[in-house]
Amino acid sequence: xxxxxxxxxxxxxxxxxxxxxxxxxxxxxxxxxxxxxxxxxxxxxxxxxxxxxxxxxxxxxxxxxxxxxxxxxxxxxxxx
Length: 80
Description:
The protein is an alpha+beta fold. Helices cover 66% and strands 18% of the residues. A hairpin with a 2-residue loop joins strand 1 (4-10) and strand 2. The longest helix is centred in the C-terminal third of the chain and has 31 residues, at 49-79. The protein is flat. The protein starts with a strand and ends with a helix.
């Protein structure tokens, strides 16, 4: 698959991302990150990009952790 460069805006900053994903998927992922960062900044009144980015990353990591645990349980149940 060919790599494509897509320009996205996250937390009021533009980034050029190169990815194998279709442009629409790259934009959707960036929109999720932007939304999470905007929500966290509004809720906590933190404005430093680095702090908000780390907080968003931890939030996404927590979601991923929970989903992986659920997936492991489903796989184990399917094997029984």
